[in-house]
Design a protein that fits this description.
Length: about 475
């Protein structure tokens, strides 16, 4: 193990590390595991539980809830497949108990602290404060100062709480507290229209929990392709989700044990009431009390300012994931963490820029990578081709009764610059397009790869085939003739 920069080798190396990682969530876990494979001495400081938001408040519990909602939906709509439909009898407490059991299974296996200790990683419990370019103070049961060559900040983010009169007094839940409930409420009003909110309102509705979603803007999921969002809105409303747009929330009161949201919809006064409120209006980075200001490390409302290598203004201190404010996804945090470690310890310069794919796990899923149509037209001055294949032309989608979706691909000078999918398992399909964007591949080139039939991905091959046929038509004068 190498001594920290500027430090001499000494007999007591217990608190001297090659890398100290602050935060054992998605980014920290993967970065630590990668660093451990490089025979580096690594410490991770964690103030709460290994696994971070993804395991305890985000990806895992929300997907377990969505899975329960899908089962209930299939029971309710079984008649569409020639099977007698039944109205599911939902035990909300047992649904939440299963969610916790899934979390416990992961916590006992893949996210078990002992697994990381067996890799040689020191797990230090307490609150971390960066005290210098090569030092981290751990405040807890007896303060401990760690010396390190590099520090990687992976402290994540937390739900943002809007300033709404009466909200704190009325009480509410966020993604952090939703899955800790032991007696889930019978109805919700949801404030916010991003991915977390939209996933939850569909799950609630399918489980027989009435919910109203209040969105400040004219549509949900504003970062996704509008044409596909419109299709998703139709699907959600058909299932009974109450979506309200152009809402201004002004006040929250409690009347007779019911929580009442007061505001306007399209400028007209309106109220909405439910047993509980779910607030999902975005996230705030966990940058407080880390000592960054004392080191001159700049932060904004989005997080720590880093360069395209993941470095802060102190070049031995890196940041990745939500705290770095790029993309607030588990997979991007893990990617950025690995790239940062690579930049620290390998020759050359790494980069943490990529065609980041993401998905909103509604049913159908909505996946995205690269530019939207509006973004592409702005960037390329309108020189954009839009390719679209509706799932109504996909045999597997029709067989599965899931033809309410579409694939949209955007190209500039024949090269893919954006892709958007509304389909079952869209999150599984989007990676092909992310790779294509990263490698500057043309849509017609994807036709050279066979797509299994019958799958939803067959439509990717069909769309690529159309592009190839168009190219071939222009070259038909080269065809050999008798």
């Amino acid at each position: 193990m190498l001594a920290p920069e500027g430090a001499e080798e000494g007999p007591d190396m217990a608190d001297r590390y090659d890398l100290v990682i602050v935060g054992m969530g998605s980014g920290g876990m993967v970065a630590a595991e990668f660093a451990a494979t490089l025979d580096l001495k690594v410490a991770v400081v964690e103030r709460d539980r290994v696994g971070g938001d993804c395991l305890w408040t985000g990806c895992v519990p929300s997907k377990a809830l969505l899975a329960a909602g899908k089962v209930a939906h299939h029971m309710r709509t079984a008649a569409d497949f020639g099977i007698t439909a039944v109205e599911p009898q939902v035990d909300r407490k047992k649904v939440w108990e299963r969610i916790r059991s899934v979390q416990d299974q992961i916590a006992a296996t893949d996210d078990n602290p002992d697994r990381f200790r067996e890799m040689g990683i020191d797990l230090v419990m307490g609150h971390a404060k960066v005290t210098g370019p090569n030092t981290v103070l751990v405040e807890g049961d007896g303060d401990r100062e760690l010396e390190t060559r590099y520090t990687l900040l992976c402290t994540g983010s937390r739900p943002a709480n809007p300033a709404i009169e009466g909200l704190d007094e009325a009480g509410f839940v966020t993604s952090e507290s939703l899955f800790e409930l032991t007696d889930p409420p019978a109805s919700f009003v949801n404030i916010g229209g991003g991915p977390i909110a939209v996933e939850m309102v569909q799950a609630f509705t399918r489980l027989g929990i009435p919910v109203t979603l209040l969105q400040k803007g004219p549509r949900i999921l504003p970062r996704d392709e509008p044409a596909l969002v419109e299709l998703l809105v139709e699907k959600l409303r058909k299932e009974g989700v109450d979506l309200r747009f152009d809402v201004e929330v002004q006040q929250v009161t409690v009347e007779g044990g019911t929580k009442v949201v007061h505001g306007t919809e399209d400028g007209s006064p309106a109220t909405w009431e439910a047993e509980e409120l779910l607030v999902a209006v975005g996230r705030a980075p966990n940058v407080e009390n880390l000592g960054l200001e004392d080191l001159g490390i700049e932060t904004t409302r989005k997080g720590v300012v880093v360069d395209n290598r993941g470095r802060t203004s102190v070049d031995t201190i890196y940041a990745c994931g939500d705290i770095a404010g790029r993309y607030l996804f588990t997979h991007s945090a893990a990617y950025e963490g690995v790239r940062a470690v690579r930049d620290m310890f390998f020759p050359g310069k790494g980069k943490v820029v990529a065609a980041v794919p993401w998905a909103t796990f509604t049913d159908p899923e909505l996946a995205h990578t690269g530019l939207t149509e509006a973004e592409a037209r702005e960037r390329f001055k309108g020189d954009v081709d839009v390719w679209r294949m509706d799932l109504a032309h996909n045999d597997r989608a029709r067989a599965d009764g899931a033809s309410e979706g579409s694939i949209i691909v955007l190209t500039h000078k024949k090269v893919i610059v954006g892709a958007h999918i509304l389909a079952p398992a869209a999150g599984e399909m989007i990676h092909e397009f992310a790779l294509a964007i990263e490698e500057s591949i043309g849509l017609s080139e994807l036709s050279q790869f066979m797509h299994v039939y019958p799958t939803i991905s067959t439509s990717v091959g069909q769309l690529a085939g159309e592009a190839a046929f168009e190219k071939a038509e222009k070259l038909r004068w080269l065809v050999k003739r008798k």
